[in-house]
Amino acid sequence: MPAVHATFRSQNHRATRQESKALVVAISALQLAMLFLVWLVALIPMALLALGATVVQALKPAAAKTPAPIDF
Questions:
Q1: How far is Cα 15 from Cα 66, in angstroms, rounded to an integer?
Q2: pTM of the full predicted structure?
Q3: Burial code of 2-35, b = ≥16 C-beta within 10 A, e = fewer?
């Protein structure tokens, strides 16, 4: 059962080395900030493209918006 032994050793190692709560909170806050920044980096260009497409559609002449006649 090497897996059980390895798990026991890693739990034992964690028990001897305590990280400060302030460090854990700081790292968690940094990770959350990085996640937020990644979302912004991904969403801002898409939002600008959507806004640009909306503006282009609004500026097209009204004649271009009429549908073609249907032939029977």
A1: 73
A2: 0.45
A3: eeeeeeeeeeeeeeeeeeeeeeeeeeeeeeeeee
